[in-house]
Amino acid sequence: MTIKKNRAFLKWAGGKYSLIDAIRAQLPDGKKLIEPFVGAGSVFLNTDYTQYLLNDINPDLINLYKILQVQAPQYIIDSASLFVPQNNNADCYYALRAKFNQSTDLYERAVIFLYLNRYGYNGLCRYNQKGIFNVPFGKYCAPYFPHKELEYFAQKAQRATFTCLPFERVFARARTGSVIYCDPPYAPISKTANFSSYATNGFPIEKQSTLARLASKAGYQRNIPVLISNHDTELTRELYQGAVLTELQVNRFISQKGSTRNKVGELLALYIS
After folding, report:
1. Phi-psi region for residue 84, left (φ > 0), alpha (ψ -120 to 50) or beta?
2. Where in the chain is the domain with CATH 1.10.1020.10?
3. How far from 129 is each of 126, 164, 198, 201, 237, CA to CA, in Å?
4. What element of type H or E holds 247?
5. Over the chain (273 residues), what is each successive 10-residue block's mean pLDDT?
6. Are the C-beta atoms of residues 225 and 213 closer than 8 Å to each other?
7. Are the C-beta atoms of residues 161 and 173 closer than 8 Å to each other?
8. Residue range 71-149, CATH number
9. pTM for this model (two decimals)
């Protein structure tokens, strides 16, 4: 029987919608799913745990999720008001982007964030070193307003707690009965391919190593299973040598050139006692 898959309401580079079946097949049963790097939430939206602890280091993302959790009807109305033809041009996009960067109002930032996500280039979420959102205009014919996807997320979010913490602190919160799924900023395929500017702090090799160490400790010493997604490279195979590895081939769409959008190898690393 084919299980219906639910799409996230955000476009997201590296989103896990296409890998949901493979990820679900590896995730153990448990009472609570913990995601230290929730991103757009595809795994959350396509699993059925009693509780969720959903974390991300991006405060704009977590702020949006918290607002949607408690005031979805009004948020949907207000964010939909930006999805009109007269806003689908570079001048309006850059004006709203500037307004977003200057705003300290959390609700206003959440409303504009969805517009920027859907009208910006390739679903990217990128900030410069000063924390300024700097994704360029995407030039799409008619950006989609994800009404149903927002409603579904808001409904399921009633089972969730949202936090904006370093991943190390999220691991510390895990208890027996939980399962942890990690989708960190990926290790670069090569020395020149590094897409770690998702959050202003980046995610260097030292962080990849810390994540692997915490996953091993949780899985083998604390009896808390951990599943990690990452690129299949010499580095990640070395980092995850203590885990059960599953190899995948995945289409990647970061490149502007269709001819370079090739399949790349990914790993699912499972730490379970």
Report:
1. beta
2. 71-149
3. 10, 19, 11, 8, 30
4. strand 244-251
5. 85 91 97 98 98 98 98 98 98 98 98 98 93 97 97 98 98 97 90 45 87 98 98 95 92 50 83 96
6. no
7. no
8. 1.10.1020.10
9. 0.91
